[in-house]
Write a structure and sequence with these properties.
Layout (H helix, E strand, L loop, with lengths): L1 H42 L1 H12 L3
């Protein structure tokens, strides 16, 4: 039974390490995407709607 717990512990450590590496690689881009998306949704919303409304009548 102790061997089973040791094996599970090793697997959980591996999964945590893999998650941490992935998180460190994408964290900066995730924050940057949130900032850019927030900026666009607040300040450029009307311009984007106007562009798409103008494209609606064109083929």
């Amino acid at each position: 039974m102790t061997e089973l717990f040791a094996l599970l512990r090793k697997e959980l450590i591996y999964i945590w390490y893999y998650f941490e590496v992935q998180f460190r690689q994408i964290f900066l881009y995730w924050v940057l995407g949130m900032l850019i998306g927030s900026f666009i949704s607040v300040f450029a919303k009307d311009r984007i709607h106007a562009v798409f409304a103008g494209m609606k009548d064109k083929k």
